[in-house]
Specification:
- The chain is mainly β.
- 10% of the residues lie in helices and 35% in strands.
- It has nine helices and 88 strands.
- Strands 11, 13, 14, 17, 18 and 19 form a six-stranded mixed sheet that branches.
- Strand 28 and strand 29 form a beta hairpin.
- The longest helix is centred in the N-terminal third of the chain and has 30 residues.
- It is extended.
Length: 1421
C-alpha cells in the first residue's frame, strides 16, 4: 500500500512538471503559426479591343497563384468572365465563346447587327481560389466595327499650282484607321505634302501637275473592301491674281490620351501663298524633330503627347494685309496611376484596419473597393476615408480575403489587390512582417496587437467595477479598477464593444500602461452598446469583465435636411427655389434660411424664407450660384441640404465692344477691329458681332455679322474716295447690345501699292521758335505707294529722343515744350503696314528766351510749298475730366470729355485723340502714345503694381490742343513673374549641419512680397511635392536651415509670393555639407581662428599647435561677447598686476652679491640696449606696452600693401582677402633666417597635429565683431602673465608663447602647407616656425551698440643683431624671478641680470596703471 501511494505521488509530480511544459510548447507552436500571405494576382489583364463582325476576338487574361513546384498545396485559379457586370454563362455546347486554359476569352465569330449586339460591351476577368478568395481584373471595352458607310465622298475639284485642296472621305469613326486612298486605282503613298486627316479626308498641299488624276477612298474591313466614288483632281496654272484667304479645314476641339500622336488639321488656300503659323496660348509653336512637325501645308502633327501639350491652339494664316485665325482646344488625359498601392495586413478580430490607396490621373480618377470580387458598400463598419482609403471597423473572421482598389477615369482603369489575414488572439502579429510574395503590394501589421507568442505565466483576472462615468449622445467614457489578481506590473487594457443587435465587436486599447479609463467616440445617438474590459500583462490576455450595457443619449431634435431642393432661373437676375418639408422635422419647422454664393467668391449670403419656395432677386446676369437650404425649429438650425448650382439666364450685352478702330485697307475696303465688352457686361456667351455702316451722312445702313470669336472684319465693296461711318455691337442669344459710337474713315481714291515701304518725303521745312518748332512737309513724289501716316522724330543732338505719329493727310505739325537756344535734329518718315520708309533730316536751333516772335512773319510765306496750308490760329481746347480706371494688372481704361463737342459728346468730324502715358520707375522711361477716335482708350500691356500717369490731347486737321491735366492709376498686383535672384548658400561658422540661404527679390515682383518658400532636396530631379519646404514670412532675404546631413549634396530653390499667389521657382542651386564635425572640443570652441577659404564647403580644420594658420579668425556666435570681453580683460589685468607685485616682492630678497652681478651684467650688456638707457628697457610685450602701438585712422593706409592692417576683421571668412604671396614669402624668409641665427638647437622635424596635446588658452579675448582678441605676442616674446605651456606643448595663436630661448624641445613647424585667406601680418620677433601672425584689432562692444575696430600698427621686426640684443635684455627680466615659481625649464642659459631696480619697477607700475585707465575707458565707452 505504501509502495502504491509512493507511485501515485510520483505520477502526480510528473504530471505537475509535464503539464506546464506541454502547455508552453503548445502555445509556442500556436503563437508562431502565422500563415504567409498567398501569392495571387493577374499576370495578364484584358485591354480595349476593336473587333470586326464575323471575325474572331480574343480578350487575354491570366491569373498567377504561385509556383506549383514550390507550393503544391496552392490550387490553380478558376477564371470566369463578366460582361457589363454580369457573369457570362458559357454553356459547354457554346462553341462560339469559350475560356481558354490560360483564362483568356475567345469569341470565335463576333455577332453584331443593328438590333442584336450580344458581344459588344465591357468585360472583366474574375479569378477565384476557394481556399483564398477572389480577385477581379481591370475592365476592357470590346467595340465592334460597323459596316463601312461614307457620309461624304470625294468630289471633282480643281487646284492652282502650289495651292492646297481637300478631298472628302467621311467614314465611320471606328473605321478611319482602316481607310486608305488610291490614285488611278493605285495605292497612294502619303507624305508631308499628301496627308490623310483624322476624319479620313485627303489633303493635297503645294500641288504639282503630277497630283492630277482620279482619286478614290477605300475602307478595307474583314469582308470585301468598300470604295467611294472616284473624283477627278485638275491642276490649273497660277494666274498671279490675288485670292482671298480661306480655311478649307479648321482645327476642332480634340481629346487624346498621354503618349498618343495627334494631327491638328489646318488647310488654307489663297494667293500669294499664305504663311501658316501656330500659337499655343500666347507662345509661338516651333517645329522640333520627333515632337512637332508641320505637314500638309499647315497642319500640326504632335508626337508622344504629354500633359504640358494641352492648351488652346491657334492656326494663323497671313498674306499681305490680311490674317485669318482658327482656334481649337487640345485636352490631354492621363490614365490612372498608383501613387500608393494597398498593403497586405495581419490583424486580430475586433480590431480596426485601414487599406490605403492613392492614385493620380487626369481627369481625377474615381476609386471603388471590391472584396473577393464583390463591391464594398459603405456602411457603419466599412467606410471610405479621404475618397480613396477603405476603413474596416471591428473585424470579424468573415472579413478575411482579398481587397482590391479599382481606379477609373475617361482614359482607362487600373486595379491593385491586398490580402487581409485575421489571426487568433493568442497568435502574435509578426514583427517584423513576414516577406511578401505578392508583387506590387507591401505587407503591413496593424498596430495595437496584444497577442503573445510564448506565455510563460499566469494572466490577470478580470478588471473590477467597470462603469460608464460619462454618457453623451455620441461618446461614452468608461472607468474601472485594476484586477484583484494582476499577476504582474504595467498592466494595459483593451475595451471590446459592439452595438446591440450586431455581432461585429470592436476593440479600443488604452494609450499607456496603468491607465484605467477610455473614451469611446463616434457612437450613434439613442443606441444601446455592450462593453467589456480585458487586462493584459506580459503573459497575455486576462479574463474579461462582465458585460456592461449602456445607452447613449438622444440627440437634440433639430430638423433634418430639406429634400428635393430645386432651382430654376426664371429671369437673368432671379432664381426660383423650391423644396419639401424635412422628413425628420423633430417638431414644427419655424423658418427656412437660404444660403447662396456666387461661384469663385468666398462670401456666402443668406435670406429667410417662410414657405417651401423662394425667389432670389437682384442676382448677376449669366452667373453661376451655389445654393443650399437649412430648416430651423425651436432647437435651432438643422442639417443643411447639399449644395446645388444654378446659372442665371443670359441677356443682351449691357456695354458696347471696346477699343473700336477703323483702318482704310484700300480704295474699296476698310478694316474694322474691336475688343469684346467688359466681362461683367457681356451677360452671356457672345455669339457674334453686328457691324453697321453707312456712306457719308445717309441714314440708310448696311450690316454684316461675324462669329463670336472674331474680333475684326474687312468691309469691302465700298466706293472709292468716299467717307463711311461704322459702329459695332455684341450679340448674345438674347439679341444685340448697345453699339459703339460712330467712327469715320475714307477710302482711297485709287488702289495704291503697299508691297513695300513708302518713299522718302519730297521736302521737309522747319521754323524754330522759342519753345517750339513748326514742321511742314510734302508727301513722297511717288504717289502710287500707300502712305498711312508720318513719323516725326526729334531731340537735342539726336532725332530719336521723342517720336510722334500723325495722320497721312496731315502736312503740318508744331513740336511744343522745347528748350530755348537748343540745337534739335528732326527726322520725318512716311509709313504704311509694311514698315517705315527712308527718313529725311533737318536741324534747327530754337530761339533764345528773350527773342520775341516776329508778329509780321506769315507762316504761309514761310512754308510756301503747295502742300503746306496756313495753320489755324485758334488752338483746340484740351480734353477735360481725364480719368484712369484700373481694370486688371496690365490694363487701364482712360476716359475723358471734350468741351469742344456738343453736350451729347458725339464726334461728327475727323478729329482724333492722342493718349500718352509713362511711369516714373525707372526714371528715364519714355513716353508711349496711342491714337483713338473715341472718348476712351484701353491701355494694355502695362506692368503690374505700377503707377502710371496719363494725359490726352485732341487733333483736328491741322489744329492740336495742349496736353490735358494728368490722371494717375496704379495697376493691380499679380503673382510674381520672375523668380528670386542671386540665390547663394553658405555654411554657418562652427555649425556644419547648418546653412544660410541668401537671395535677392525677384526683378518682377508684381506687388509687395509677403514671403518666400525655400524648397530643398537631395534629388534635383524629384517631384516638387517631394521637396522639403521652409516658409519665410515677410521680406527677409536670408534664412537659416538646421539639422542637415553631413557630406550630402542639397539642392535649393526659392519661390516668392505676394498677395496674389506664388511666382516661379528659381533655378536649383546645389551645396554640399561638410564631411565631418570636428571631434576636438578646442577646435570646436576656437574654430573661428582657423579661416575657411571663400567658397569652401568644408568646416575649419584643426591644424594643431605651431600651425601656420593660427591667426585670429572669426567666431560664429556673438550672443554674450560683450560680457565675455569684459570678464576676460578684467581677469587678464588682474593677473598682470599679481605677477608684477610678485616680482616686486621677490626683488626685496636680492642680496648685494646679486646687485653687483646685475650691475656687472648691465655694464657688459649696455652696448646691446636698443635705446641706450637702462630705464628704457621694456619687455617687448604688445599687450602691456601699448604706448608702443600707433593708432592710425582706418582710411589712411600709407602703403598699398602695408605691413599692418587698417581694415576691421570681417564677420565671415568669405570677406577675408588673401595675403599677397610675395609678402608672405619675404616674411617667411626673414623669419626663417632669423630663427637660424638665434636658436641654438633648431629642429626640422614637424610635430604631427594629433601628437600635440592641447594647451590651455588663458588669454583668449573674443570680440563682438567675431575676431579673436587674444594676445598678439609672437612665439619669441615672454608672456606677461607668466602662463606657459608645459614642456612639449608649444602655444598656438590663442596662448601667449614663451621666450624663444626657453628650450621646450619643440621642433620647428613646417612651411605653410596650403594657402589660407588671412589678414596681412607682420613679424615682430623670431618665430618658432613659419607662423604668420595677424595683427590684433581692438573692437570692444557694449550692449546696444558696437564700436568699430581700432586698427593697430605693429612695429616691424628689427635687424637680427639689434633683435638679438633686445632678446638678451628681455630675458634679463625673466631671469630676475628665480625665487618665485619656475616658469619653464631652461637650457642653454645666458647670464642675465636677476632683478630690476625699485625705480624701474615703479615705472612699470605706472605703465600698468595707464593701461588699466585705457581699458576702463574702452569698456565704459
Amino acid at each position: 500500500m505504501a509502495e502504491r501511494g509512493a507511485r501515485l505521488l510520483l505520477s502526480l509530480l510528473c504530471l505537475t512538471f509535464l503539464y506546464p511544459a506541454t502547455t508552453v510548447s503548445r502555445h509556442a507552436e500556436k503563437g508562431t503559426a502565422a500563415r504567409l500571405f498567398s501569392p495571387f494576382w493577374f499576370s495578364v489583364e484584358p485591354w480595349d479591343t476593336l473587333a470586326v463582325r464575323g471575325a474572331p476576338a480574343l480578350l487575354n487574361c491570366s491569373a498567377h497563384s504561385g509556383d506549383p513546384a514550390s507550393e503544391p498545396t496552392v490550387p490553380q485559379a478558376r477564371v470566369e468572365w463578366k460582361k457589363d457586370g454580369t457573369f457570362l454563362s458559357l454553356a459547354p455546347d457554346d462553341g462560339r465563346r469559350r475560356v481558354l486554359p490560360d483564362g483568356s476569352l475567345l469569341i470565335s465569330s463576333v455577332v453584331h447587327s443593328k438590333h442584336n449586339k450580344p458581344d459588344e460591351g465591357t468585360y472583366q476577368c474574375v479569378a477565384t481560389i476557394d481556399s483564398l478568395g477572389t480577385i477581379a481584373s481591370r475592365t476592357a471595352r470590346l467595340t465592334v466595327a460597323g459596316m463601312p458607310r461614307f457620309s461624304s465622298q470625294p468630289a471633282a475639284a480643281s487646284i492652282r499650282l502650289g495651292d492646297s485642296q481637300v478631298l472628302a472621305c467621311d467614314v465611320n469613326p471606328d473605321l478611319v484607321p482602316l481607310a486608305r486612298w488610291e490614285r488611278e486605282r493605285e495605292p497612294l503613298e502619303l507624305s508631308s505634302r499628301l496627308v490623310q486627316l483624322p476624319n479620313g479626308a485627303l489633303v493635297v498641299s503645294n500641288a504639282s501637275e503630277a497630283d492630277a488624276g482620279l482619286y478614290r477612298c477605300m475602307v478595307e474591313n474583314a469582308g470585301p473592301a468598300k470604295t467611294s466614288e472616284e473624283a477627278q483632281l485638275t491642276i490649273l496654272p497660277e494666274t498671279g491674281e490675288e485670292r482671298e484667304l480661306e480655311f478649307l479645314v479648321e482645327p476642332l476641339p480634340v481629346t487624346k490620351v498621354v503618349g498618343a500622336s495627334l494631327l491638328l488639321p489646318c488647310v488654307v488656300t489663297g494667293y500669294p501663298a499664305p504663311y501658316v503659323r501656330w500659337m499655343v496660348g500666347d507662345k509661338l509653336v516651333e517645329e522640333s524633330e520627333g515632337k512637332l512637325e508641320l505637314v500638309g501645308g499647315g497642319s500640326l502633327l504632335i508626337y508622344n503627347l504629354t500633359e504640358e501639350d494641352a492648351g488652346v491652339y491657334s492656326c494663323m494664316a497671313d498674306i499681305t494685309n490680311n490674317t485669318i485665325e482658327a482656334k481649337a482646344e487640345l485636352t490631354v488625359q492621363v490614365p490612372p496611376e498608383f501613387l500608393k498601392r494597398p498593403a497586405n495586413i495581419y490583424a486580430h478580430e475586433s480590431m480596426d484596419i485601414m487599406f490605403q490607396c492613392e492614385v493620380t490621373g487626369s481627369p481625377a480618377p474615381t476609386v471603388k473597393w471590391v472584396k473577393n470580387g464583390d463591391a464594398v458598400i459603405p456602411s457603419d463598419y466599412f467606410k471610405i476615408i479621404n475618397e480613396h482609403n477603405l476603413q474596416v471597423l471591428g473585424l470579424v473572421k468573415s472579413d478575411e480575403g482579398f481587397y482590391q482598389c479599382l481606379a477609373e477615369n475617361d482614359a482607362g482603369n487600373i486595379q491593385s489587390s491586398a490580402q487581409l489575414i485575421i489571426l487568433e488572439h493568442d497568435v502574435a502579429l509578426p514583427t517584423p512582417p513576414l516577406p511578401s510574395l505578392t508583387p506590387d503590394t507591401t505587407d503591413h501589421v496593424t498596430p495595437g496587437s496584444r497577442g503573445v507568442a510564448n506565455p510563460t505565466g499566469p494572466t490577470p483576472s478580470a478588471p473590477r467595477d467597470v462603469v460608464a462615468s460619462l454618457v453623451s449622445t455620441r461618446f461614452i467614457k468608461l472607468t474601472w479598477r485594476p484586477p484583484a489578481e494582476p499577476n504582474g506590473e504595467d498592466l494595459t487594457y483593451s475595451v471590446y464593444f459592439n452595438q446591440e443587435g450586431t455581432n461585429r465587436e470592436r476593440i479600443l486599447n488604452t494609450s499607456r500602461p496603468g491607465e484605467m479609463q477610455v473614451t469611446i467616440q463616434n457612437l450613434m445617438p439613442d443606441s444601446k452598446y455592450k462593453f467589456r474590459v480585458v487586462a493584459h500583462n506580459k503573459n497575455g490576455l486576462g479574463e474579461s469583465s462582465a458585460v456592461l450595457k449602456v445607452a447613449t443619449q438622444g440627440e437634440v431634435q433639430v430638423p433634418g435636411p430639406a429634400p428635393n431642393l430645386q432651382a430654376v432661373s426664371t429671369t437673368p437676375t432671379s432664381v426660383t427655389l423650391s423644396w419639401d418639408t424635412p422628413l425628420t422635422g423633430n417638431g414644427d419647422v419655424l423658418t427656412y434660411k437660404v444660403y447662396y454664393m456666387e461661384k469663385g467668391l468666398d462670401l456666402e449670403q443668406d435670406i429667410d424664407a417662410g414657405a417651401l419656395s423662394y425667389t432670389l432677386m437682384g442676382l448677376k446676369k449669366f452667373t453661376e450660384y451655389s445654393i443650399r437650404v437649412v430648416a430651423f425649429n425651436k432647437h435651432g438650425p438643422g442639417v443643411s441640404t447639399g449644395d446645388i448650382t444654378v446659372t442665371t439666364l443670359s441677356d443682351v450685352p449691357s456695354a458696347p465692344p471696346q477699343n473700336f478702330t477703323v483702318e482704310v485697307h484700300n480704295s474699296k475696303s476698310i478694316m474694322v477691329r474691336w475688343q469684346p465688352p467688359p466681362p461683367g457686361a457681356q451677360n452671356g456667351e457672345i455669339t457674334g458681332y453686328k457691324i453697321r455702316y453707312r456712306k457719308g451722312t445717309r441714314k440708310s445702313e448696311a450690316a454684316e455679322t461675324t462669329g463670336g470669336t472674331q474680333l475684326f472684319q474687312l468691309i469691302d465693296g465700298l466706293e472709292r474716295g468716299t467717307e463711311y461711318t461704322f459702329r459695332v455691337s455684341a450679340i448674345t442669344v438674347n439679341g444685340s447690345g448697345p453699339a459703339t459710337e460712330w467712327s469715320t474713315a475714307e477710302t482711297f481714291e485709287s488702289d495704291l501699292d503697299e508691297s513695300r515701304v513708302p518713299d522718302i518725303p519730297s521736302s521737309l521745312h522747319v521754323r524754330p521758335l522759342v519753345n517750339s518748332i513748326v514742321v511742314s512737309w510734302t508727301p513722297p513724289e511717288n504717289q502710287d505707294m500707300v502712305v498711312r501716316g508720318y513719323t516725326i522724330g526729334y531731340g537735342i543732338g539726336s532725332p530719336h529722343a521723342q517720336t510722334i505719329k500723325v495722320d497721312y493727310k496731315q502736312r503740318y505739325y508744331s513740336i511744343e515744350n522745347l528748350d530755348p537756344s537748343s540745337h534739335y535734329v528732326i527726322t520725318l518718315k512716311a509709313f504704311n503696314n509694311v514698315g517705315e520708309g527712308i527718313p529725311v533730316y533737318e536741324s534747327a536751333i530754337t530761339r533764345p528766351q528773350s527773342d520775341p516772335i516776329d508778329p509780321d512773319v506769315d507762316l504761309y510765306e514761310l512754308f510756301h510749298a503747295p502742300y503746306t496750308p496756313v495753320p489755324d490760329p485758334t488752338p483746340m481746347l484740351p480734353p477735360v475730366g481725364v480719368q484712369a480706371s484700373v481694370l486688371s494688372h496690365d490694363t487701364i481704361k482712360v476716359t475723358w470729355a471734350d468741351n469742344s463737342l456738343p453736350k451729347n459728346q458725339k464726334i461728327t468730324d475727323a478729329r482724333y485723340y492722342t493718349v500718352r502715358w509713362k511711369t516714373n520707375i525707372p526714371a528715364n522711361t519714355k513716353l508711349k502714345t496711342a491714337n483713338t477716335t473715341n472718348l476712351s482708350h484701353m491701355v494694355t500691356g502695362l506692368k503690374p503694381n505700377t503707377l502710371y500717369e496719363f494725359s490726352v490731347m485732341v487733333t483736328k486737321g491741322r489744329r492740336t490742343s495742349t496736353w490735358s491735366m494728368t490722371a494717375q492709376g496704379t495697376t493691380f498686383e499679380t503673382i510674381p513673374s520672375s523668380s528670386p535672384k542671386d540665390v547663394t548658400v553658405v555654411s554657418k561658422e562652427l555649425k556644419p549641419r547648418t546653412i544660410i540661404v541668401n537671395w535677392q527679390p525677384p526683378s518682377e515682383a508684381n506687388g509687395k512680397i509677403t514671403g518666400y518658400i525655400i524648397y530643398y532636396s537631395t534629388d534635383v530631379n524629384a517631384e516638387v511635392h517631394d521637396w522639403v519646404i521652409e516658409p519665410v514670412v515677410g521680406n527677409r532675404l536670408t534664412h537659416q536651415i538646421q539639422e542637415l546631413t553631413l557630406d550630402t549634396t542639397y539642392y535649393f530653390k526659392i519661390q516668392a509670393r505676394n498677395s496674389k499667389g506664388m511666382g516661379p521657382m528659381s533655378e536649383a542651386v546645389h551645396f554640399r555639407t561638410p564631411k565631418t564635425e570636428s571631434s576636438d572640443k578646442m577646435a570646436n570652441d576656437q574654430a573661428s581662428n582657423l579661416p575657411v577659404k571663400p567658397g569652401s564647403n568644408q568646416p575649419p580644420l584643426d591644424h594643431g599647435f605651431g600651425s601656420p594658420h593660427g591667426k585670429p579668425g572669426i567666431t560664429g556666435s556673438a550672443d554674450n561677447h560683450i560680457l565675455v570681453i569684459v570678464v576676460i580683460i578684467s581677469v587678464g589685468a588682474f593677473t598682470i598686476i599679481v605677477v608684477v607685485v610678485g616680482a616686486f616682492l621677490c626683488t626685496r630678497r636680492t642680496t648685494s652679491h646679486q646687485k653687483k652681478k646685475r650691475a656687472a651684467s648691465k655694464s657688459s650688456n649696455s652696448s646691446h640696449k636698443y635705446k641706450g638707457n637702462s630705464k628704457d628697457l621694456k619687455p617687448p610685450d604688445l599687450w602691456i606696452h601699448h604706448e608702443r602701438l600707433e593708432l592710425k585712422p582706418i582710411d589712411k593706409s600709407p602703403e598699398p600693401n602695408p605691413v599692418m592692417t587698417d581694415t576691421p576683421i570681417p564677420r565671415t571668412s568669405q570677406d577675408i582677402n588673401p595675403v599677397d604671396p610675395s609678402l608672405d614669402n619675404s616674411l617667411l624668409q626673414r623669419r626663417n633666417s632669423y630663427r637660424e641665427s638665434v636658436r641654438n638647437t633648431p629642429s626640422t622635424e614637424p610635430l604631427p597635429p594629433q601628437a600635440q596635446p592641447p594647451c590651455q588658452a588663458e588669454h583668449q579675448h573674443p570680440d563682438p565683431e567675431g575676431s579673436y582678441q587674444g594676445s598678439t605676442a609672437t612665439d619669441d616674446e615672454p608672456s606677461a602673465s607668466g602662463s606657459y605651456c608645459s614642456a612639449g606643448q608649444p602655444p598656438t595663436a590663442h596662448v601667449r608663447p614663451t621666450h624663444p630661448l626657453k628650450s621646450f624641445a619643440v621642433p620647428a613647424s613646417p612651411a605653410a602647407i596650403f594657402e589660407s585667406p588671412a589678414l596681412p601680418s607682420t613679424p615682430l620677433l623670431t618665430q618658432t616656425g613659419p607662423q604668420l601672425h595677424s595683427v590684433k584689432t581692438a573692437s570692444i562692444g557694449t550692449l546696444g551698440r558696437v564700436r568699430p575696430p581700432m586698427p593697430v600698427t605693429v612695429p616691424g621686426a628689427p635687424d637680427v643683431p639689434e633683435t638679438s640684443k633686445m632678446l638678451e635684455d628681455v630675458d634679463s627680466v625673466l631671469a630676475s624671478l628665480p625665487s618665485c615659481s619656475s616658469l619653464a625649464p631652461r637650457s642653454n642659459p645666458v647670464p642675465f641680470p636677476q632683478s630690476y631696480e625699485p625705480d624701474e619697477l615703479t615705472e612699470e607700475m605706472a605703465h600698468l596703471e595707464d593701461l588699466m585707465k585705457d581699458l576702463n575707458a574702452i569698456t565704459t565707452a
